[in-house]
Amino acid sequence: MGRTYLVEEGIGQYLTELSTKVKPYVTGLLIGQCSPQRDYVIRAVRTPPKEQQQEESLGPPKLASLDEEWITTHASQVSRMLPGGLLVLGVFMIATPELAKDGQNALRKLIFSVEKSLSKRRLWKPAEEEVSDRAALQICSATKKVVCRTYDVQDPKSSAKPADWKYQSALTASWVALGCTVNVNIHIPLLATSPNHDLEKNTKNGLNRWSKQIEDSVFLINGQVKDEDTELLEGQKKFRGNTQPSTQFSDVKVLTQLCQGTSPRSTATVQVCSGSINLRGAVKCRAYIHSNKPKVKEAIQALKRDIINTLSDRCEILFEDLILNEGPQKKNFGREYHVLPQRLFVPVAGSSVMLSDYKFGDEAAGEIQERFVEMLDQPVQAEDMHIAEDISTVDICPVTDSPSDTQQAQLTKATLLLKLQQNMGLVVAAAVAVLASIFSFNYFSD
Questions:
Q1: Beta bridge partners of 191
Q2: How far is CA 343 from CA 124, 146, 436, 440, in A?
Q3: SS3 of 81, please?
Q4: Is 184 left (phi over 0), alpha (psi -120 to 50) or beta?
Q5: pLDDT tens digits for 374-383?
Q6: Percent helix, strand and coil across the chain, each rounded to 5?
Q7: 3-state secondary structure 305-350
Q8: Tens digit of pLDDT for each residue in 13-66?
């Protein structure tokens, strides 16, 4: 038996409206949430049209003209606007009957391309038990027939499996929201061996180390540590028959471990650096979980990923902005001070779920409104945009002078002395242990 997709009722009307405009096909993304029992689709978003597509449409209709790169880029942009718990669940295509035969092959190719593009950006790894099926939805523009199949994106040789596509009203009306504020103070060294001061690569490496700290953190939900296998809503009243959006909000505290690893002994490392990057601020994080007996581990996992994604995404956005303004071939740099884009949240009509975006200080509300229309095909009112946090910063600090040969020698000498001290410490500890055992033996012998 295949997977079941519960779909927000309004999506049916959205897809029907798209099918009346299709010439000869339209593609898009399915956004929602996976769960062990079933998947939830809360939005469908068409692929933004390209200007040159108008000229291409003059030729005979064919799916070979699908712009795979354009669609995967759209998926990457959309994924930045999704809070924890939401992801790109699959792709859809509305096409004329003449293109129906090639539709599934095109959708299969798109599903794997989108997943490959999204997985490259992640700083976390999917869990072994995680659902890896993604939906391929095909709709005939003439007959309105809907065919839903799934592919396992973890298996390149995966074949299509049938899936149920069921509409449901008020699907997300009573979903659970979890929120937290995470204070960030990350120091990332820039190694002298790094070519051309590769800031973006070094930053990603530093965030990768930080993400492991987040993975190992302790999460207090409403002030309590809960067993991961218990139900998130255990002991809470559930209001049946409620079709109005009513968010059940859980406040979460994140306790990060000060020390990594289980060994109490730490080893110092001396590295020659050309500078450092410092990320500072407090970021607002949010995750949403379905209300069908969700487990605590599902909720914590969704929030962890939002914490990691939101900092990684805004660093990506900052570097993209720097490349646009300063060019990609910047080799020499002085001390730089940048402000990370701030996170804002926007409500989804008829839902308790909010989507997010990032705003630079000089961006006007109109630019963000245009982005929501282009990326998510959703009009947004300026008064509905809620900036959630204060300013976070990136401070890039170069070393004023590159290390000389003398400095290199001093650093090497310091490293050797440090290792010698560590070894001497081990020798002394061993000697003390031996003497203690001899003393104990003589004492009891007498």
A1: 273
A2: 21, 37, 60, 64
A3: coil
A4: beta
A5: 999 999 999 9
A6: 35, 30, 35
A7: HHHHHHHHHHHHHHHHHHHHHHCCCCCCCCCEEEECCEEEEEECCC
A8: 999 999 988 778 999 999 999 998 899 999 999 999 887 555 445 555 577 678
The helix/strand/coil state of 105 is helix
| Segment holding 158, helix H or strand E | none
Residue labelled with tokens 């000389």: 404
**Beta strand 161-162 with 393-398: parallel, antiparallel or unpaired?**
unpaired
Determine contact, residues 283/390, Cβ cutoff 8 Å.
no
Quote the pTM value.
0.83
Query: What are the CB-based long-range contacts (under 8 Å, 24+) for 233-242?
Result: 233/176, 233/291, 233/293, 233/294, 238/174, 238/291, 239/174, 242/173, 242/174
Reported as half-sphere exposure (CB side, CA atoms, 13 A), residue 153 has a value of 24
Residue 406 reports pLDDT greater than 60: no
The CATH number, out of the four listed (3.40.1650.10, 3.90.76.10, 3.40.30.10, 3.40.140.10), of the domain defined by the range 4-50+62-168: 3.40.140.10
Q: Are 311 and 207 in contact (CB under 8 A)?
A: yes
The torsion of the CA quartet 404, 410, 415, 420, rounded to 10 degrees, works out to: 160
- Residue 325 φ then ψ, to 5°: -90, -30
pLDDT classification of 266: cutoffs 50, 70, 90: low
Q: State how far the Cα of 176 lies from the Cα of 287, in Å rounded to an integer.
A: 8
Let me know how long the chain is.
446
Residue ranges of the chain assigned to CATH 3.40.140.10: 4-50+62-168
Match 């800031």 to its residue by tokens: 199
What's the CA gap between 132 and 155, in Å, rounded? 9
User: CA distances (Å), 319 to each of 198, 261, 268, 280, 295, in order?
Assistant: 11, 32, 31, 16, 37
Distance of CA 181 to the CA centre of its chain: 16
Helices 100-121/68-80 angle, 10° precision: 50
Is pLDDT above 70 for 443? Answer: no
User: Kind of pairing, strands 248-255 and 176-191?
Assistant: parallel
Residue among 358, 329, 361, 333 at smallest CA distance from 346: 358
Provide CB contacts within 8 A for 189, sequence distance 6+. Answer: 202, 271, 273, 275, 276
